[in-house]
């Protein structure tokens, strides 16, 4: 008894110094350690820079150009001076300005904004995927650890009953075979306890791997408080946003096709020095202005083909959106049904547990009076362990179902 009390005291003391961890700790670590989120953040920042680059490209462009060329003619051998001018020196500052309509500017900037929006949606989806995966693994690890602790308590009770049975067997109140049968049950329970311990350690290792942590099996996992979110319609789900932004991108591309067939105008100007260094070269300072107007006339029917491709892309996006809405509703209904079934099974298991507890209490009383039928007692113990295990698994399934439902019902905010 002293050894048992010392063991319990040691466990309590050890538990008081163990570090407690909750599911949000692992989620935060996973979000921090995921390279994909860093990649998406950098892509979003890069697109912001692309928007600034495009705006900068719309501003007047100034360039300074210096050019010097000498083509000697020796003994009447050399380039034709009518072509080469013999020598040429120029120092010019050139100016160019692209003339765009407002719709063209807005269309190009809109395309960049839509790409950035798509990345932002991918960030939300990635975070939701990570949160779901970490919660799932945390639930599994917590359930294993919780089941291990429950089995540990039952194992302690079985050992106490085994000691009682051993004393009665020594007094020939119970048969030796009764004792060995009960001992075999205790040893089986000991093996299950060891397997559950290893199972928890393995599942914790997977949780560490997913979240980028290195927590030890000595930690205490706090029971996850996962509340069921309010169910949302498919159009309010973050997964529906990707179809909406794809639709906007296709519409933007449609306008872009039209803009590509509008006339384009480029204003040109330069000023500086340009001379062949012959004659009055000191007077060759000047300037020039010009325009470059481009009007599309015929491109081999490419515009019509591009419009057809754009229409096909729109039809494809609509088909995927309809499929998503249909499957979203079916998935939601199926998960809600499973959750309802889980609650009904839990009620049945709790009823069985109460009946079995009453039976075990009766067997414990018979045991100390020497009137217990050990084979029946062992069967009752086996039933108790099975019911307890079924309740633990059912509770794990309930948490996993809530986690899955919350995953799909993450709204667009």
Quick rundown:
It contains 9 helices and 6 strands.
CATH superfamily: Outer membrane efflux proteins (OEP)
CATH topology: Outer membrane efflux proteins (OEP)
Main beta sheet: strand number and arrangement? 4 strands, antiparallel
Strand order of the largest sheet: 2-3-5-6
Tell me roughly what share of residues is in helical segments.
55-70%
Count of spatially separate domains: 1
* 3D shape: elongated
- Terminal-residue CA separation: 59 Å
Protein name: Outer membrane protein TolC
Organism: Flavobacterium frigoris
GO molecular function: efflux transmembrane transporter activity
Model description:
This protein is α+β, with helices and mostly antiparallel strands. The chain has one domain: Outer membrane efflux proteins (OEP) (Up-down Bundle), CATH 1.20.1600. The strands form 2 sheets. A 4-stranded antiparallel sheet has the order 2-3-5-6, with no helix packed on it. A two-stranded parallel ribbon has the order 1-4. 69% of the residues lie in helices and 12% in strands. It contains 9 helices and 6 strands, in the order αβααβαβααβαββαα. This is Outer membrane protein TolC. GO terms for molecular function: efflux transmembrane transporter activity.
């Amino acid at each position: 008894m002293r050894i048992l009390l010392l063991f319990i005291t040691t466990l309590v003391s050890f538990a008081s110094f163990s570090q407690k961890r909750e599911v949000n700790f692992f989620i935060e670590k996973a979000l921090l350690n995921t390279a994909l989120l860093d990649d998406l953040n950098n892509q979003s920042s890069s697109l912001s820079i692309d928007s600034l680059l495009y705006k900068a490209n719309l501003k007047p462009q100034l360039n300074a150009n210096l050019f010097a060329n000498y083509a000697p003619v020796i003994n009447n051998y050399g380039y034709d001076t009518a072509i080469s001018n013999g020598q040429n020196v120029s120092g010019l500052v050139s100016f160019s300005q692209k003339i765009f309509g407002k719709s063209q500017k807005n269309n190009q900037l809109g395309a960049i904004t839509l790409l950035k929006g798509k990345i932002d949606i991918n960030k939300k989806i990635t975070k939701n995927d990570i949160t779901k995966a970490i919660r799932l693994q945390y639930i599994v690890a917590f359930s294993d650890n919780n089941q291990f602790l429950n089995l540990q308590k039952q194992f302690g009770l079985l050992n106490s009953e085994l000691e009682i049975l051993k004393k009665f067997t020594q007094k020939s109140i119970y048969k030796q075979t009764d004792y060995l049968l009960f001992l075999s049950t205790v040893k089986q329970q000991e093996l299950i306890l060891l397997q559950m311990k290893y199972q928890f350690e393995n599942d914790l290792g997977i949780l560490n791997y997913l979240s980028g942590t290195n927590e030890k099996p000595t930690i205490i996992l706090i029971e996850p408080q996962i509340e069921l979110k309010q169910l949302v319609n498919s159009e309010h789900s973050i997964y529906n946003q990707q179809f909406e932004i794809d639709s906007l991108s296709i519409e933007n591309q449609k306008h872009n096709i039209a803009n590509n067939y509008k006339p384009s105008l480029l204003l040109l100007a330069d000023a500086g020095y340009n001379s062949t260094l012959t004659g009055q070269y000191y007077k060759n300072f000047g300037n020039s202005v010009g325009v470059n107007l481009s009007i599309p006339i015929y491109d081999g029917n490419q515009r019509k083909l591009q419009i057809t491709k754009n229409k096909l892309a729109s039809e494809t996006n609509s088909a995927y959106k309809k499929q998503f809405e249909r499957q979203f509703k079916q998935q939601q209904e199926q998960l809600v049904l499973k959750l309802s079934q889980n609650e009904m099974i839990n009620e049945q298991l709790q009823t069985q547990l109460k009946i079995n507890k009453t039976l075990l209490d009766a067997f414990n009383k018979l045991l100390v009076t020497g009137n217990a039928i050990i084979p029946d007692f062992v069967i009752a113990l086996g039933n108790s362990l099975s019911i307890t295990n079924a309740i633990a698994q059912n509770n794990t399934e309930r948490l996993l179902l809530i986690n899955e439902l919350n995953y799909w019902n993450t709204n667009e905010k």
